[in-house]
Automatic annotation (TrEMBL), chains A, B:
<dbReference type="InterPro" id="IPR042520">
    <property type="entry name" value="GshA_N"/>
</dbReference>
<keyword id="KW-0436">Ligase</keyword>
<dbReference type="Pfam" id="PF08886">
    <property type="entry name" value="GshA"/>
</dbReference>
<protein>
    <submittedName>
        <fullName>Glutamate--cysteine ligase</fullName>
        <ecNumber>6.3.2.2</ecNumber>
    </submittedName>
</protein>
<dbReference type="InterPro" id="IPR011718">
    <property type="entry name" value="GshA"/>
</dbReference>
<dbReference type="GO" id="GO:0004357">
    <property type="term" value="F:glutamate-cysteine ligase activity"/>
</dbReference>
Amino acid sequence: MVPHLTTALTGPLLTLEKQILDAMPRIEHWFRHQWQEHSAPFYASVDLRNAGYKLAPVDTNLFPAGFNNLNKAFDALCVQAAMSAVEKICPDTRQFLLIPENHTRNPYYLQNVSSLKSILQRAGFTVRIGSLLPDLAQPTEVPLPQGGSLLLEPVQRQGNRLVLENFDPCAILLNNDLSGGVPDLLKNLSQAIVPPPWAGWSTRRKSLHFTAYRQVAEEFCRLIQIDPWFIDPYFDHRSGVDFSQGIGLEEVQSQVADLLQKIRQKYQEYAIKENPFVILKADAGTYGMGVMTIKDPKELNQLNRRQRNKMAVIKEGQEVHEVLLQEGVPTFETVEDSVAEPVVYMMDHFVVGGFYRVHTERGIDENLNAPGAHFAPLAFQTPAMSADCTHQPDAPHNRFYTYGVVARLALLAAARELEMMAPRFSS
Amino acid sequence: MVPHLTTALTGPLLTLEKQILDAMPRIEHWFRHQWQEHSAPFYASVDLRNAGYKLAPVDTNLFPAGFNNLNKAFDALCVQAAMSAVEKICPDTRQFLLIPENHTRNPYYLQNVSSLKSILQRAGFTVRIGSLLPDLAQPTEVPLPQGGSLLLEPVQRQGNRLVLENFDPCAILLNNDLSGGVPDLLKNLSQAIVPPPWAGWSTRRKSLHFTAYRQVAEEFCRLIQIDPWFIDPYFDHRSGVDFSQGIGLEEVQSQVADLLQKIRQKYQEYAIKENPFVILKADAGTYGMGVMTIKDPKELNQLNRRQRNKMAVIKEGQEVHEVLLQEGVPTFETVEDSVAEPVVYMMDHFVVGGFYRVHTERGIDENLNAPGAHFAPLAFQTPAMSADCTHQPDAPHNRFYTYGVVARLALLAAARELEMMAPRFSS
């Protein structure tokens, strides 16, 4: 099932999709060349926004959860891609230690860990789950919502190796974004660890990602000769901000005003009848925390205590001092009258699936990845990496091809972002 | 749907399958290492025989037809694997010239060419079909049995490039086994050509393939500690044979007797109550031509003219002077009371699908790939590269995992075989 586009806005998107489909051999050739120059992260998910006139990534997650939401029929794609990823990054690996997030109270997250474990097992690895939970004294079975259970085991440090009881893994797969910083346990290990701990949110910045994405989008759009704005939202960033003290908000306000002005000009250029808005979010934030929508810079003068606190502190109690200001891309995809946002999953440089985050209570200009919010995952019914030119550009697998292309551009941006970070962080 | 094993013989096969499933992480690690040392052919299909007590490859095709028989639901696996294959072998390719067999009167073969073309297109390539048919004067549309048509275009030589009208391809994909020899048109080309023309049947020999397979099987069986005989049929070969003149048949007869004796000993060792038989086939043969079943060496004294002629001349009028003698592996898989033989398809080193060749009129000890014979392709319903240890070893996707392992062993043998041939043939 593919969400319906609001009919009034199908025109320009069809143009973009058609341009991408027509250029498919050139695009794939370009990607092949890029992947020879840059190493894809082990895995990633990309949140896309489809505004009809514009299709853009709004967030790239290097520690993706949600593998349980993918269409089971395409598990084999994940298995095949996982084999490729391991061949390239840690070919000698036989035994993986999978380190999940600590929020074991979220049964859906645990189901994701179970799905990831199953993918790696089916790719031919022995997998055990090592938990960083400080109060996990012994191996503990936690029940899964879809039946069965998951064994969480406390990790132990032995010299420069991370082990479990009777298990010395060859490599460590992180599914924990390390928002609270890299724990000493994970420092100076002799084992391969993917993604690198410094790709976690204690050191990663969305602004660097979108700086890399801007460059990728420019190169790509030169290739297929379109205005990069159709796939790249304007953004800006600001450090030294303190929401609780009100420090730095004036500067943010003026940046928001500049962004809104730039968006307004583009809307005029392309005769788009929307109200521009800006998304303000923590530059190192995740889980949809620390995100707000701004339509008028004045709103920043009128923040109440609750709104300030919501922006000031995010996951694992981290204070926010750096913010990303991002052109808002409204979503015009709907599923049964609710707003929907596609999320695309990749392993190695392959698209392995995706789903729609569907929100019944949110508007088209709001963040759908909100804590505590309900969303109905809706698995893509066709794979997202292959197009068929004999069908219409908006046929399901052709629409998904376009999604897969834009998601892979964000993946390539992540690869370049990690290259830029490596000299500072990798030992 | 998985064919039922004759119940009396499930025991030993379950043992073999269980051994393979238990060793899965070790096996996959071993394959990863092998694929770092050896380059997988672009694509291949492997005919397997499952005797219950024994599971073995009986033929490995480097120019596989039958892509149209694979389960459409797993097309994306082919597309992903095709991307990998191209990245490794000819990364700069944008435009493929696909050269099919000349038997354009076989509509199912044309459907295969159409499936291959579609896979490559969806992997992001421009594909056109270049025919070697000498009497094809101009581009010709041929109708496909499932609707639509295929445009065959005459190939032209321009200097050291093979081109079509207004089409200068970066690479050439052969789906023609060149039984009649490598045409001058294909010699000394500046374009990449995969598989190499010398992998065709004018230079390739089954006996060299099974020599390489023997070594692979020995290494693999040392890894999982089983008798290699469980996956490796005995074989022998003989050159200087002339069936029409009766030359060399005495030597063949004595080799057949030796093979039957060796098989009998193994049958005794494992208490197998079957009648041993040997398959005699052209060492460079294909399309199921030039194949006979021998249960008693005396049969070779009693060949009538028709039988001699059948063995003497095969595809494209090639005379047979070299024969392979192969331990017969009976098939105990049946589909609706007809004998069935699994065929596994691979691209790069990935298993991408398979189907059963089902034959209503043949016995369990006969060749099912017979010219003119009817077979009902039955696509595997689950992918063949991932196992799930929480299910029984004979659950469909676990059975297919075992098939995928043995097929990949044959693929690895083909990789080593081509390495052995390369110094003599590649320029």
